């Protein structure tokens, strides 16, 4: 148990350790901008994150990086349109770079949304 919030993603409906895919946790308890560390199940020590998510949910934008590098794997930002301004319907643009798992990116964005809905 850590003082950081933690989310675990499993295969299917399972919650068994053998079906763990990855774990997400906040990089620190107090954050002005969102910063999440993602650890694959094959990285149980969690010394160095496998991926990280940085962004501002207030601005509805984030970037997903490979580990502690500056290599961008995906980006999300709010798409401004007449419809979004007049009707209050937010639309988002997500760019996923080649050789990156789309489902993984969607899962991270869903976790980010869940974190920010809870606040």
TrEMBL record:
Output the Gene3D superfamilies linked to this UniProt entry: LURP1-related
Q: Which InterPro entries match?
A: LOR, LOR_sf, Tubby-like_C
Family indicated by similarity: Belongs to the LOR family.
Identification of the protein by name? Protein LURP-one-related 15-like
> Could you tell me which species this protein originates from?
Gossypium harknessii
């Amino acid at each position: 148990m850590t003082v950081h919030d933690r989310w675990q993603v499993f295969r299917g409906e399972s919650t068994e350790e053998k079906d763990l895919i990855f774990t997400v946790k906040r990089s620190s308890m107090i954050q002005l901008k969102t910063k999440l560390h993602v650890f694959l199940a094959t990285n149980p020590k969690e010394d160095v994150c496998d991926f990280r998510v940085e962004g501002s949910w207030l601005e509805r934008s984030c970037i997903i990086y490979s580990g502690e590098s500056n290599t961008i794997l995906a980006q999300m930002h709010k798409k401004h349109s007449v419809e979004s301004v007049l009707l209050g319907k937010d639309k988002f643009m997500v760019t996923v770079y080649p050789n990156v798992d789309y489902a993984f990116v969607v899962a991270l964005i869903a976790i980010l949304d869940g974190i920010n809905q809870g606040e």
